Amino acid sequence: MDPVRNPYAPGAGQRPPELAGRGRELDVFDVVLERIARGRPERSLMLTGLRGVGKTVLLNTLRSQAINHLWGTGKIEARPDQSLRRPVAAALHMAVRELAPRHRAPDRIEAFLGVLKAFAQRAVPAGRGGAAPKLRDRWQPGIDVPASSGRADSGDIEIDLVELLTDAAAVATDVGTGIAIFIDEMQDLGAEDVSALCAACHELSQLGAPLIVVGAGLPHLPAVLSAAKSYSERLFRYQRIDRLDRIAADQALCAPAEREEVEYEQKALDLLYEKSGGYPYFVQAYGKATWDHAPRSPITAADVRVAAPEAEAELAVGFFGSRFERATPAEREYMRAMATLALVDGEESGRDDMDAAVPTAEIARALGRKPASLSPARDALIKKGLIYSGERGTVAFTVPHFGRYLRTQPA
Ligand SMILES: Nc1ncnc2c1ncn2[C@@H]1O[C@H](COP(=O)(O)OP(=O)(O)OP(=O)(O)O)[C@@H](O)[C@H]1O
Ligand SMILES: [Mg+2]
Question: Is the pTM of this model over 0.85?
Fold first, then answer.
């Protein structure tokens, strides 16, 4: 069928033609926004899930929802080895700028921007390496108000963040709304920053201040947060973003097709679900290839079968390969051992998805190495976001079907 009219959108953060199966999350967030605007206590939200399940897309949708409620919003993508200070300043700047036109006292906005600027300009405190601030540390936020002093500029991120977020929330209170800061890839924040963020959320919730953080990250994000502050388990509301069930996966395929007056035969949908396992990225990838190959509506199972190798080839490059290439030879060896053991465990426990968590001790045994000698490879893979440790002493792939992919790769 006409590839120009192909509605499907495989790709990182690509808005799907139909956001299927996330009604509950959207409803929950509506209630959160309403409650906070009325001064009711609410917890910040954390979305967790594997790669490609749609965390970024959902985060962006929640942000639109907040904007529709006239909230101020800003978004950050955390990166390993990058401090939170500059990005959070930029996100709050954006959020407050959205609220400013509705504020009756411009001097209150200016006072806040002065604090924001001081916060942003606060360089890494001397004594940590003692080196002169690098160019990027002298970054000037586009704020044409002089930096104030004595607030949010101590250099201690925990103190400063609490003060800054409290002040931002006060601006939102003035205009009768709230501020939401969205943080993607949140597991990549440094330990100090995570701690500071938890402390700030804790303080804000005690004050009943209308500012929330909405985070998204890999399945071990809850562990990262509770390692920073033990109270974080009670501080955040965790929502596991998972693969789509059959009804939602069918809807993700059928609703956009219907708008183009194209239909699927039932058998085609059966096969597409079998191939995608309901993982949103795969739903889009198989949907896209199938559309391009199908000569006419309705789309048949035979069309899916013809198109599948192309979808798989594209996934092998774009989804799996790009990640696999980030690993060193030693890390690849580690993951191969994981993939083999996951298959065995999966078969033994009769799981359909053969990417089970694997005990690290078994990996060491399979590779004939001491567990401690494999720690660097494991830690590097966690840092690269390829594997995670959900339970102590085990590791699993962050990428769905990654084990299956590795088992088809020549060593
Ligand atoms: N609810 C949904 N219905 C249909 N398709 C979806 C849905 N959510 C996401 N997708 C599609 O899945 C793909 C992956 O989405 P997204 O990039 O948001 O995942 P992610 O969880 O952020 O992945 P990563 O961990 O790699 O960042 C995109 O192509 C998107 O269009
Ligand atoms: Mg993402």
Answer: yes
